[in-house]
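Lay summary. Proteins are chains of building blocks that fold into shapes, and those shapes determine what they do. In this project we predict the shape from the chain. Here is one chain we studied, written as its sequence of building blocks.
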Amino acid sequence: MADVAVRRVDFGYFVRPADETGTGQPRVEPCLGYLVEHPDGTLLFDTGMGSHPDVDAHYRPRRVGLPEALAAAGTQAAAITVAANCHLHFDHCGGNPLLGPIPVFVQQAELDAARQTPDYTLPELIESSRFESVAGDAEVLPGVFIMPTPGHTHGHQSLVVRRADGAVILAGQSHDTATHYAADQLAWRAHHDGHGQPLPAIPDWIDVLQRLDPRLVYFAHDRSVWTP
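And here is the predicted shape, written in a compact code that computers can read:
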């Protein structure tokens, strides 16, 4: 569907501490969501950062709230008809309580982890959201599919937007950066070409995504975009 538009929503940034980056240096990361504007409705993928004193002290976020972020993207919460979270850590579902009765699609495994695992996320973000749990793939709008992409969390999911010119993938935090995705994609190509071992191990779902012939892959914490 060529008339489906995908637009970025900027929820600000945070500082990942040096002991979490693997480089010995802190890293400033954007917090990004995405609007999918479809003839049958508007979907919001991820809703920004929640707030808690301990979280704020650890990550030092500079937030853009949901209403302000949507306004900067040229829309408002009243225009959203459906939402989804790639996973339920604080920096992906912080605006959920402001969506009211709008259904928020999430993998059942992710919802179970958020409800049952101490310090997994901020409890108020889970208790005040209207979740629609799914187990596996689900079509949330015509040609717009949720797809499990476990790794960062067991219940992580991405969004596939089928367009006439190829698929657009909203990959969330399946990979921290477009460069990391590009490395897995190239390893997938080497496996697909029957290249000799040893080769890097890659997630099974990379094959599913690449067979969709994606034109663009967007990420939650990287402004860069993967292209073929």
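What the prediction tells us: The mean pLDDT is 96.
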